[in-house]
């Protein structure tokens, strides 16, 4: 059954169909604690609930037509929409693929004029779109844009000028064209409602006195995320204006050291008694770090992933953060630093370790961050449940130890930098290690694999990972069997993304119905052929089967033979039919 | 059309046209990467297509550091790594990263000016990146686009007037403007 075009045909679908589109996403609920996602069950009495639903989450902007979603939940006050596939973060998705926000904002403006919160992720948002939403939503309190592009600071000026009730402007990792450096001045003098301002992703300089005045007149400001360009010698000015801050992202943390600056900083920080989260600290100069010591004990979240400080200085800082729950750091911390974390930060829940030299370009010896650091934190931190770890070597034994120590893991993402790297002691694939993870961590909802892996690991994942919702696979597996194990198991799987694996499309055809229970599937540089995609599309009319080819000058897809390879494939369930905005590089089979 | 001609078993060609930040044309650096990475995938994929030996011999090792999207670090973080790397390691490898926008295109790109030898390479790279064929200025033809940049003083200048080294040290960001607009205004953004 297929929804043809817009119109009210969707209304005739039973609730079960909607249940697949708007389903519980526990992991998102964790991250965006304010969000409750929607489960629609075909039971009496639930229809009324749908009518009163306040928060709507759309995990794939093409899964449902905007007008349909808006009409379905007429009382919505908060909306979150996601666009591009996750691999767009790594430049694997063409820039013009889609994910435009215009249609969504237009439909929301029409049907949800009282909207208070809007969160968009990986979408293309134009300045016109920002202007439109600034004018349409008089009650807008929260605007959060993450990994979006297509807009400029002129668009932000419109937001500042018109959103009189804005509490949160949260800009995370967007690519913003900066053509209007005075956009902050567009917040009127009468505007005092800001609670959260995060402009860390802007590159240009922001007028310090404008920012200072804004901060001064917003007594409820709790979160302030400055950008790298914000100078260290002005930081104390802002801190003195907003000592009530709970979350601070500093600007650059380097400046020529002189005692007066240091003391100003130290004094300003010690005045921030409520500070719980700290980030930014770009290009930190070790001499300034002691200015932070007074707030360390109160910190629950520390993001040093842009701080190029070495292990000894990192250790001095982190060892004082006894209440840390979340730590993001560069691999400069090394195994020794993680051992200190393990003994000092007993409340640690989330750890991310990023590589300082991902391409191995730096001539000096590599940092000493190995499997030992991971073992240390898994042993010492009983509440650790989320891990993202980039490293160069791993062993099955280490992974088995982690699995044994931390059955409470819910997110485990390991990235061994060189593809196909085996256990460096035994030269075996890392099948045994990852198998131990899924067998032990029964609540695991997100997993990223790396290293040398055969089909065996997929057999374990399919069999044991009952709660797994998102799986990322790269340079792994031997044959179609690997993919088949995943698709025929993994009861809760929502998102599957695969690159550079020898998987064909046969497992997709054999498990076609499974794809309808998932949000999306991405496969690139695998062994998929056009013929298989044609079969899949034919068999499953409720899936959009998108094949992507960025090379110009090829024959059009209709003319290509069945054995033509498909370099990039994106499959997703949808009620909205083929999307009208597909670019030339995409063909919907 | 035969299947074999349709699929040139040559991942290099595919990689050459993938969106990357490196200049166009394959620049095969000294390879550390084991051939198994490229051929392992290809061999298994190939067995389904029954490729000939001739095609397998075309396998060449691909430059290690240039696998698109690997390691999986957000482009945003990558950009801030690389501009920072020059602070960590004091060699001449610090990148000069600038944003590039093009009129009518909703997304921005970021490029490292240091990897180009001169203006010719830069123009070709931009043409490749934005998929347009008319960036290279030709005297006898009205250019459809003009490539401009914002310099250290905040002025918008036409790319190509000053020596290359001077350009890359003063360029803060670039904008590819539609030709008509560029002709009408000399230096405003």
From TrEMBL, chain A:
Residues in the signal sequence: none
A Pfam family per the record: Transp_inhibit
Cellular compartments annotated: Nucleus
Biochemical pathway: Protein modification; protein ubiquitination
InterPro entries on file: LRR_dom_sf (IPR032675), Transp_inhibit (IPR041101)
Ranges annotated as spanning the membrane: none
Keywords: Auxin signaling pathway, Nucleus, Ubl conjugation pathway
Biological process annotations from GO: auxin-activated signaling pathway; SCF-dependent proteasomal ubiquitin-dependent protein catabolic process
GO cellular component: nucleus; SCF ubiquitin ligase complex
Keyword rRNA-binding among UniProt keywords: no
Domain Transport inhibitor response intervals: 74-120
PANTHER family xref list: F-BOX/TPR REPEAT PROTEIN POF3, PROTEIN TRANSPORT INHIBITOR RESPONSE 1
Subunit structure comment from the entry: Part of a SCF (SKP1-cullin-F-box) protein ligase complex. May interact with auxin and auxin-responsive proteins.
Official protein name in the record: Transport inhibitor response 1-like protein Os05g0150500
Recorded name of the encoding gene: LOC109728235
UniProtKB/TrEMBL annotation, chain B:
One cellular-component annotation, GO: nucleus
Keyword annotations of the record: Auxin signaling pathway, Nucleus, Repressor, Transcription, Transcription regulation
UniProt cross-references to InterPro entries, sorted A to Z: AUX/IAA_dom, AUX_IAA, PB1-like
Xref: PROSITE patterns: PB1
Keyword Transmembrane: no
Coiled coil stretches, renumbered: none
Localization per Swiss-Prot or TrEMBL: Nucleus
Domain PB1 residue range list: 95-179
Example GO BP: regulation of DNA-templated transcription
Pfam families per the UniProt record, alphabetical: AUX_IAA
Key word Membrane present: no
Biological role stated in the UniProt entry: Aux/IAA proteins are short-lived transcriptional factors that function as repressors of early auxin response genes at low auxin concentrations.
Family: Belongs to the Aux/IAA family.
Subunit-level organization: Homodimers and heterodimers.
Name assigned to this protein: Auxin-responsive protein
Species whose genome carries this gene: Ananas comosus (Pineapple)
